Amino acid sequence: MAEFGTSKFVKKISEITHESYVHGWDERNGGNVSVRIDREDLTGFSDLAEVKRSFSLGFDARPLAKQYFLVTGTGRYFRNVINQPQKDLGLVQITADGQKADLLWGFEDGGLPTSEFPSHLMTHIERLQVDQTHHVVMHCHPTNIIALSFTQELDEAKLSRLLWKMQAESLVVFPEGIGVIPYMTPGTTKIGRATADKMQEFRLVIWPHHGIFGAGADLDETFGLIETAEKAATIYSQIGAQGGKIKQAITDDQLRKLAKAFGVVANPEFL
Ligand code: 2HA
Ligand code: ZN
Fold it and tell me: Which enzyme class, named as a word (predicted)?
């Protein structure tokens, strides 16, 4: 394992990318993560005074002007981040005019932020409107969620209810349900806009035939959110593997009791 310096964010993002890889959700360069870091939490990054390079963002990120993001690099492999975080991660600051990102640390061998950086930043903008504690956006390729996007209708109510009913945990962890966008070409501002629009209502958004986007307060919470949805989808796959016949299931009434017991409000459009 590499020396992480003293930033707790570099250590944590390295651990989470490795875990996601081990789960099988980040083949090759699949997946990307960004963490918004508050100014007072920048301790542990050496020498932030100098702008090393600048990247054009391709959209107006003015709502995030001056904000700092630790982000994975385009083309980089999640399985490697833990061994070379200074190459595969970069700390950038959005410029005052919202047009560019200034590199302050990392990407030491010439790297650039993930191709999905527009989707990440647009999502950060929307999540901040809903919840100021939100700092993390994570994208990866969880196998069973992707499989669902082939076998199920791309309908938010139906997908949310299916995932809620696969285990008692789902409704408690994502009571608002799960969003879904139509299939689109990745790495574009168009898919970024569609994802961010869904993030006004949801913290999880399925990219059909591709993967998932999750958002949350910190890396543990965001990864846990994706893990919970993928666990539910895995149970659905296993039910299929066991013959697909459901003898007994969680009822709507049981979901309502669950929500009440855990003090969460289930999306009233879905339940
Ligand atoms: O970072 O997963 O969607 C590679 C991808 C693009
Ligand atoms: Zn992807």
Answer: lyase
